[in-house]
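Contributing new records

If you add data, match the layout below exactly. Sequence lines come first and carry their own label; structure lines follow with theirs. Keep one chain per record. Anything else will be rejected by the validation script.
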Amino acid sequence: MLLLVTETSSELSRMFGIRKPRLVSSQPAPSPSPSSSPSSQTFGTRYPLRTDAVVWRGLPVLEGTNLVTSGRRYGGWVQTLKGVATLPTEFILPRIEVPYRAELPASMQAAEARHATDPAAADAIAAEQWGYYFYLGGGKSTLDRFPKAREINRASSSLRMQMINEVIEDVVGAEKSDMSVLDFACNWGGMAIDMAHRGFRSVTAFDFKEDNIRRAGMLNAYMGTDVQLDVANAYDLPAHYQEGFDVVLNLGLLYHVTDPVRLVQLTHALTRKVAVFDTLCHKEPFSGFITAYLNEDQIKRSGMGEQQIELHPTYRGLVDLIHFAGFRNLVEVAPIIGPKYPDREKEHYYVGHRRTIIAFK
């Protein structure tokens, strides 16, 4: 099934300056003439130095090498390409489809009882700066400070738990009570807390940002779960992690790093049975990575990585990389999202810019 998309996700739009497609000529623009920009400069003592730009279809937006504007150049290219042929969402793996349900997961529903016993703790948590939604009971949530984003993030958080945690719980069945879980770069800790609530034997989560772990600790204590939370870098994990985990969650991390090959290999090394990769992906039908540059404000956000430059995988690049790392069988999880889903056209999963793959050793 191919889903034709005429919108991009808001996150990719901001990063690469991509907007709604516009009609452009299908005829290539003439390339600059070799003599159009004569140069009197020389390289060394006798080599003429050409400074005229020769770019694809002669598009001015593609000129230049400034790192800060690299995303704008990529966005300009995608914009032009989409005027010719809209990029479809590809599916090259076996897949399951998960219908979105407009209901909170059991872990969040359990917050009602927690709020009844400790409403002050809920107030303290709600006062923090959160980037993701978790219901705290008593009508409160982690995003009460941002009411405009609350409804959308409530749906998105529930969708992720349905697509990832609920599916893994179903796949492993009764074995979950004897299985360990590791959550890579856990950020808010919500996915790990939800897994603990589902009855997995042990859940460990880490993030390299201390403030993320502090907030995750508040939520963990409030919900009464026993998630082991560590401040650690994915490339320099504590020695005891090397014993491995039955289930490894690599969610929302792969597009925030500069060494994705090593990251996926580390994920494979720590996985005993099954891993889940959930990441933004570009839709160009080739196997590779797109360079993205973050400004100083973006890099400070709780979900960002260490560097101001990132390597975003294409969908085919993600599949090839997971196979290269040594995982044997891959199954994709695709959502079914109806028209009542809030702001559906901006949901990354719906437009095909975020993909979820379950990988078995």
